[in-house]
Write a structure and sequence with these properties.
The chain has 282 residues and is an alpha/beta fold. The chain is 38% helix and 19% strand. The strands form 3 sheets. A 4-stranded parallel β-sheet has the order 1-12-10-11, with helices on both faces.
């Protein structure tokens, strides 16, 4: 085990949108009078959320409870009705919605306004998807793949937008299934470029090592997807939220370990995993 080769995936950890949201939140906490609230967890990483609480940013789930102070809209975005209600109150609104998510919202609205039936590829209950759907019209469909499409599509014109963390292969499968069934199909590929980078790099790493450790919140869609993709290539894949979860037996008979991380995982959590693997493998 002394020669254990530890490889960190080329693209791992914080993306630009997550870093932007955290910077905005920290500036708001430093500049604004309390209370400072985040509407839902700013990002899907429990350790980071604990740090933000220590900085005075309280997580609230019910927008109706917010009557003043500063409110931060999380990186996943929220339903436009919530934005409208908060804007009508005496609230200092800090919108940290990721620009890729904002683009998906805007494209969903454009398709709806132009008379398309909007199909959203994504997880139906994910906060990002709930936000996008609020812009897409009352008859919008949310599917996780071609198998989620209804037996009959009654509208001749269909437009597609995508949850930003979906794999490109899933979008390709949905488009292939829709194209023969409608007269006009318009597709906006709203998958985040950082997501694609991380997925490709993670799969490449998984194919070259004996064990993969994926670091990030279990409530993080993009981190969970990285774990799924890696496991399909390397069955000895483990998803952890912290270095303390790593077990020495995972490294049995392994000469190489690959480490990757979701877009909401900070550098210090990745480094802690590297150090723990090094300790256990020595």
């Amino acid at each position: 085990m002394n020669s254990l080769d530890i490889r960190v995936s080329e693209h791992a950890g914080f993306c630009w949108g997550v870093k932007r949201a955290l910077d905005m939140a920290r500036r708001a906490a430093a500049a604004a009078a309390p209370p400072v609230r985040s509407l839902g967890p700013l990002i899907h990483n429990p350790g980071v959320i604990e740090d933000l609480v220590d900085q005075g940013i309280v997580v609230v789930d019910d927008p109706a409870s917010v009557r003043g102070g500063t409110v931060i809209i999380r990186s996943h975005g929220v339903e436009h009705e919530i934005i409208d209600r908060l804007a009508a109150r005496a609230v200092n609104l800090v919108d940290a919605t990721c620009t890729f998510v904002k683009s998906a919202q805007e494209k969903a609205k454009r398709l709806c306004d132009q008379g398309y039936l909007v199909v959203i590829l994504g997880e139906p209950e994910h906060p990002e998807v709930l936000g996008i759907r609020s812009y897409a019209g009352v008859d919008a469909l949310v599917v996780e793949g071609p198998e989620g499409l209804p037996a009959a599509i009654t509208r001749p014109r269909v437009g597609v937008v995508v949850q930003t963390t979906q794999p490109p292969e899933r979008l390709a499968a949905l488009v292939a299934a829709l194209a023969p069934r409608v007269r006009e199909l318009r597709v906006f590929n709203t998958i985040c470029s950082a997501t694609e980078q991380r997925q490709k790099a993670a799969v490449s790493t998984a194919g070259a090592v004996d064990v993969v450790i994926v670091v990030g919140g279990r409530n993080s869609g993009n981190t969970t997807r990285l774990a799924e993709l890696c496991a399909a290539v390397q069955p000895r894949t483990y998803h952890v939220e912290s270095a303390a979860e790593i077990q020495s037996e995972w490294l049995t008979n392994a000469s190489s370990v690959g480490i990757t991380a979701g877009a909401s995982t900070p550098p210090d959590q990745i480094q802690a995993v590297v150090e723990q693997v090094r300790r256990l493998g020595s």
